[in-house]
Amino acid sequence: MKKLLITAALVTLTLSGCSLFHRKSDEAWKNAQQERPLEVPPPLDLPPSAAAMTIPAAGGDAVAASTASGAPGGVASTSSLDLNDTVDNTYRRVGLALGRGGVGTVTAHDDAAHTYSVAVQMQVAEPPPQGFFKRLFSVFSHARTHAVSGNVNVAVQARGTASVIELNGEPAAVQQVLALLKSRLT
């Protein structure tokens, strides 16, 4: 009998518990005041769009400029790096920079065409499982990474008195090789 009374008391307190702790003033919203609107400084109120539609001039003379185009995923990407040096000297310097390691392994090279093929090992993160309950109850809810190899083709070509290094391949691998070449050649 005592267990039944205790259970009934707990059920009653549980069902009416919210009304025990709230404030009795139901008209607190009438005393609320309007705050000042957020002020944004003038240079931050609009994003810069002055250079949104400009077309760059063909054959720029930048010492170290890179352009990247390519969508995420398995789509090939192209990037380039301009240097003020001869083609043969640039080809030799690229070979030394790639040979020192740090980004991948040179799998092939063609001295006549001034090209290299580089195999790059990348760490790719898989997204965590989608959905609240899958993430909540999944043992592997954190993002996992796995190694993926990507191939990058590096070609050195003449552009006037300078030379240009063009990289083609998977976007993530191209960005790794381009960052290495920028740090070692410029």
Task: Describe what you observe in this structure.
The protein is built from 4 helices and 5 strands. Helices cover about 30% and strands about 25% of the residues. The longest helix is centred in the first third of the chain and has 20 residues, at about 1-20. Helix 2 (about 85-100) crosses helix 4 (about 170-185). With about 190 residues, it is an alpha+beta fold. The protein has a domain at about 75-120 and about 150-185: 2-Layer Sandwich (Alpha-D-Glucose-1,6-Bisphosphate, Chain A, domain 4). The radius of gyration is 31 Å and the shape is elongated. It has a 5-stranded antiparallel beta sheet, covered by helices on one side. Mean pLDDT is about 75; it is low at about 60-75.
Indicate the topology:
Blueprint: H1 2-21, E1 77-83, H2 87-99, E2 104-110, E3 115-126, H3 132-137, E4 144-159, E5 162-169, H4 171-185
Antiparallel strand pairs: 1-5, 2-3, 3-4, 4-5
Helix pairs in contact: 2-4
Q: And the CATH topology of the domain at 77-119 and 151-185?
A: Alpha-D-Glucose-1,6-Bisphosphate, Chain A, domain 4
Low-confidence stretches at least 5 residues in length (pLDDT < 50)? 59-74
Largest sheet: 5 strands, antiparallel
Share of residues in helices: 25-40%
The radius of gyration over CA amounts to 31 Å
Structural class: alpha+beta
Q: Give a count of the beta strands, DSSP E runs of length 2 or more.
A: 5
Query: Taking strands numbered 1, 2, ... along the chain, how are they ordered across the largest sheet?
Result: 1-5-4-3-2
Binned strand content: 25-35%
In one word, what is the shape? Answer: elongated
> Which CATH first-tier class of the domain at 77-119 and 151-185 would you pick?
Alpha Beta
Q: What is the overall number of helices?
A: 4
N- to C-terminal distance: 87 Å
SSE run: HEHEEHEEH
Mean pLDDT across all residues, rounded? Answer: 75
What's the CATH architecture name of the domain at 77-119 and 151-185? 2-Layer Sandwich
